[in-house]
Design a protein that fits this description.
seven-stranded antiparallel beta sheet; single chain
């Protein structure tokens, strides 16, 4: 029995880690640049499956039309109400949404400035852009947007996303954290 103890302990730790991984935490790899500069393409993010998303949070969503693929977007608005984009600015029930600007919890201002400049120099669009007609959200629906709105596929194409499709709230970068190099 003495020789089996490390094996039993290792097996228990592995099972515990797998349970946590599939019920409490998750990892998602960012496949596009639609969340730059907050999240760089190629980053792997840690998300909590138990957290309740708040406006401005970066969330992970599983769309029924795209099974097996997790998308990373920002929770821009939540129902009930009517949401619309006018000149790239988000409005809910005719009022500008407070906090619509990007929140960058893991990027300092100096680093952000360098990364945004690098994106601009590469010719990519950074500014929020465009209009979207008024859309009604039910009390169990969210409107999700990418930070690089000119190039993001999000609720403007998908429509409102039901709350049950949001599988988690991003808590940080696990691998390939964005660097300050443009």
């Amino acid at each position: 029995m003495k020789g089996r103890w490390p094996l039993v302990l290792s097996a228990t730790a592995l099972v515990g880690a797998l349970v946590l991984r599939h019920s409490v935490f998750g990892l998602v790899s960012v496949q596009t640049g639609s969340m730059e500069p907050a999240v760089e393409e190629g980053s792997t993010l840690l998300f909590s499956r138990l957290a309740t998303p708040a406006l401005g949070d970066i969330v992970v969503v599983q769309l029924p039309d795209d099974p097996g693929v997790l998308h990373v977007k920002r929770l821009a608005a939540h129902g009930p109400g009517e949401v619309e984009l006018v000149d790239g600015r988000l409005y809910m029930d005719g009022e500008r949404v407070a906090g619509d600007e990007r929140r960058l919890s893991w990027t300092d201002a100096n680093c952000l400035e360098k990364r945004v400049q690098g994106i601009v120099e590469r010719g990519a669009v950074v500014e929020k852009a465009g209009n979207h007609p008024r859309l009604s959200l039910h009390s169990d629906e969210a409107f999700l947007l990418g930070d690089r709105r000119a190039v993001s596929e999000d609720s403007r194409q998908w429509g409102p996303v039901r709350d049950e499709l949001i599988v988690g709230v991003v808590r940080g970068v696990a691998w390939n954290a964005p660097t300050c190099d443009p």
